[in-house]
């Protein structure tokens, strides 16, 4: 377990360098309370600096990934203001240096979609569906939706989702590029574990450098992005013996 205080609605488990964070409020479709959001921030920060952490996986307890923030709690004072609005786990996920995989097992709406978009990539169950209901309920996104969703699915589909609140299913999310794969529901965790194992056996230094380049090059011109890669290559120290060992091991596994 991660050495953080227990948080109702949030499960955490660490094994072999992999941290699984699970949203656990199925009776409320895993809606994110303020305590859960703070717990996610603490857990992600602890995992990111934890020795030996290679991958973080974020998922939910069936039947949902998450319906987003818990509006009953956040608007419970009757003033119409969202309490705890600065408690932004998506920002922390984007700032971390550890690869984060979203295992989307069901409904993924609004703030939860922003959290999913802040993962490195998403593997979805056939039961997954995605929507942004900020405008539909009279709110404005604040965790990155307007920047991240168009980059994931294209500007036109993003506008349609954001203006209408309509959901797209797993197959449409796959066609749009929002998720990398769609698998049968009962196979989701097994498929994610296999992907995690592929990352775990890769070079930690190479994974870190490779993951960083697309992020720093996003929005740059092609020439600038190529220059960033060239500079990173000059700074990177290759160990020929390690390369030979890893290459032989990869050939053996295949």
UniProtKB/TrEMBL annotation:
On the tree of life, the source organism's domain of life is Bacteria
Q: What Gene3D superfamilies does the database record attribute to this sequence?
A: 2-enoyl-CoA Hydratase, Chain A, domain 1 (3.90.226.10)
Q: Which SUPFAM superfamilies match?
A: ClpP/crotonase
Q: Read off the InterPro entries from this record.
A: ClpP/crotonase-like_dom_sf, Enoyl-CoA_hydra/iso
Q: Which Pfam families match?
A: ECH_1
Question: What PANTHER family has UniProt attached to this entry?
Answer: ENOYL-COA HYDRATASE, IP11341P-RELATED
> Which family does the UniProt entry place this protein in?
Belongs to the enoyl-CoA hydratase/isomerase family.
NCBIfam families linked to this entry? PRK06190.1
What is the recorded name of this protein? Enoyl-CoA hydratase-related protein
Q: Which organism is it from?
A: Amycolatopsis ultiminotia
């Amino acid at each position: 377990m991660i050495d953080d205080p227990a948080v109702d609605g949030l499960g955490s488990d660490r094994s072999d360098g992999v941290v699984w964070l699970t949203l656990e409020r199925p009776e409320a479709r895993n809606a994110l309370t303020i305590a859960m959001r703070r717990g996610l921030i603490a857990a992600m920060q602890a995992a990111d600096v934890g020795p030996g952490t290679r991958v973080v996986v974020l998922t939910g307890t069936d039947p949902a990934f998450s319906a987003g923030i818990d509006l009953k709690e956040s608007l419970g004072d009757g003033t119409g203001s969202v309490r705890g609005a600065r408690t932004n786990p998506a920002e922390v996920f984007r700032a971390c240096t550890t690869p984060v995989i979203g295992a989307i097992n069901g409904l993924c709406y609004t703030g939860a979609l922003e959290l999913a978009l802040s993962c490195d990539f998403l593997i979805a169950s056939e039961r997954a569906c995605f929507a942004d209901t900020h405008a539909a309920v009279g709110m404005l996104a604040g965790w990155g939706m307007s920047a991240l969703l168009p980059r994931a699915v294209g500007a036109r589909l993003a506008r349609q989702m954001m203006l209408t609140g309509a959901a797209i299913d797993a197959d449409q999310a796959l066609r749009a590029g929002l998720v990398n794969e769609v698998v049968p529901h009962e196979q989701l965790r097994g498929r994610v574990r296999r992907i995690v194992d592929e990352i775990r056996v890769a070079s930690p230094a190479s994974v870190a450098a490779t993951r960083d380049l697309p992020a720093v090059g996003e929005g740059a011109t092609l020439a600038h992005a190529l220059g960033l890669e060239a500079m990173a290559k000059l700074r990177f120290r290759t160990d020929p013996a390690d390369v030979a060992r890893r290459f032989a091991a990869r050939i053996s596994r295949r």
